Every structure is written in C-alpha cells, then in structure tokens.
Amino acid sequence: MGQCYHSILTKKGYKVKWFRSTGAAIASLEQDLPELVITELQLPMHNGVEFLYEFRSYQDLSDIPIMILTHVPPLFKAFNASQWQQLGVAAYHYKPLTKLADLSRSVDRLLAPVT
Amino acid sequence: MASRKQRFADERLLQLLAEQIKLPLMQIARQAELASVSDQPIKLLGVIEDTADSSLKLLDSYLLSLRLAGVKSSIQLEPVSVSAVLNETAQSLSNLAKQYDCKLELHLAGRYEPIMAHRAGLEAALTSLGYVFIEAQSVLPKHNDTPVIKLAAHRGKNGIVAGMFANLDGLSSDVYKRAHHLFGQAHQPLSHLTAGSGAGVFVADSLLQSMSARLRVAHHQKLSGLAATFATSSQLNLI
Q1: DSSP structure string for B87-154
Q2: Whole-complex ipTM
Q3: A25 CA: distance to closest CA in chain B (Å)
Q4: Full-model pTM
Q5: For B30, which of A1, A43, A76 is closest by C-beta distance?
Q6: Residue B130 to residues B19, B22, B43, B96, B169: CA-CA distances in angstroms?
C-alpha cells in the first residue's frame, strides 16, 4: 500500500520520503523537516499514538501538520476530535475507504498556501 | 455439536479473516486506481492478479479449516512427503514473494521419511503462514539485504518439524501465547510479526489442530518462525 501512496503523491509532484519505522522517520528529521507527516496508527512493533506524542515533544516540529491514514476505523478512534487537534492531527483518513484521489486532495488542501 | 468455546473461537477466526481480507481488497482497489493514471498499467495488472490469487487461497484455506474441523474425529491422516509439500508451497508463494521483494528459500536439512498428515491441509496451512510472513517482511523495517523467508524442515525430538522461518526480532513463545489470548480482541494480536490481524497464522493453526499438530514458535538455523511437529509414518519405516 505504501508504494501506491508514494507513487500517487510523487506523480502529483510532491517529494515523498517513506519510512518503515518510526525510529527512522524521527532520525531523518535531523536532516530535513517535512511540511506534512502522514502516519498509520497500526504500526508493527510500535503504537502510532506514541509516535505522535514523541513527534510533538520536539519543539521545532510542533507546527508540522500530521495526517493519519490508518486501518483503525473512525469508530474505534481512541481519542475525540479535540484530543486529535491537540496533537496537531489535521486530517484522519480510514484507509479502506480512502481512494488515492481523496488522499491526494487532502494533501493538496493541507499544503495549500494560506491566503 | 460444537462447544460454546469452539463457537467463540470460530467467530473470532472469522472476524480476523474479515479484517485480513480487507487488506488485499484494498490493495486491489488502490492498484486499479493507480493503474488508471499510470503510464505502465500492465505492470500493475500483474500485482493485482497476484494479490487477488493470494486472497482467494487464504479464503480457501479458511474454508478447508472449517471442513476439517467439522470432521476432525474421522480425518484419515496419510503418509505425506514433507519435501513435496514444501516444494509445492514454495511454488505457490513465489509470485507473491517477488511482488513484495522477498527472497523465498526452501531448506530441507536432509531426507525424510513420510510424515502423517492431511496433505491438502498441510499445504494450505503453510501457504497461509507464508502470506503472513511475506506481508510482515514488507512492513517491518528493512535491513540492508533483501529479506529472506525460509520454508524449511528439520528433524526434531518428536518427529519432523516443518514451517516458515525468517529473521524476526522478538518472536518468542510468550509473544505467540499472548497472541492467542488477544486473538479476536485486538487489531494486532501478533504485532511482533504483522501489523495486520495475522489471520493466516490462526487459520494455519486451526488446520494443523485438525491433524492433531500445533503451531508453535520454532527455530531453524539462526532464524525464528512458526512450525509444527509431525510424527513420521512408522508403517513406511519398516519397508
């Protein structure tokens, strides 16, 4: 699935970096800060929510929007909307119902210059 | 009539399977969407075909596990060549392994006498395990080399041990035992192996239980994995 998301966003002209572990993602931030982070909540050997807390614990990353793209259905969301907002989650997409076009539109919206 | 405990286990397995099947269906849908805007749609069609084939096989394995569980007391185990079954399983998994950039290797540490098993059930169990391992390798952090999955057999204390092995950190008997407790209650009962529901593992276990074997954590060379031990056919030993 990661390859699909990577392909469609690259095709749209975005520079996409894909990490298979939260450790590698955090380590990469020392070289390059992203404009948007897209993450799954259900990660092998990791908890996506823990990753969010870790990510937000770094001051210089506090303004970067986060999009959740996950297998966890909205009904099972551990948090309510205001808690997600506090963590800087700008969009929540349930993978099985999110087409590539929806993802792409959502990224466009989040990265659009504020007028 | 099935006991309440058994019915509960059956329901949980069905639930896991439904969760698991969502993944390939989603992959098919997204790959098709990508193909519609891609310059190389033919390449993606092959991926769609392999994904659909593997899902169909997983469903078939699940149905076989139900059939075998229903007639467990009357299943006739027969002498089965473990190397032939491992060979056939490797063949049926080869396309999927290629698709996920995994190296699938067959390793038989010697020649073995036939084992007592249900041939179709054993092949289905190993194939189901294979899907989980291949998928797991695709989402786990990659080390430098191409991930290797071994479909292997070796001689154990109580018979021939056959199963699937890989370079997996943290897969232990405790983790596997905990997965059985979490089975049907957690999204990721076997999070050390797969980010998904791991239905293939539980389908494999159900199939093996019908043959009076149990899936357990085992080691082969320096790899960890899941395998079952099979008694050898004593009748053929005498020949």
Answers
A1: HHHHHHHHHHHHHTT-EEEEEE-S----EEE-HHHHHHHHHHHHHHHHHHHHHSPP-SSPPEEEEEEE
A2: 0.81
A3: 11
A4: 0.79
A5: A1
A6: 18, 18, 23, 9, 17
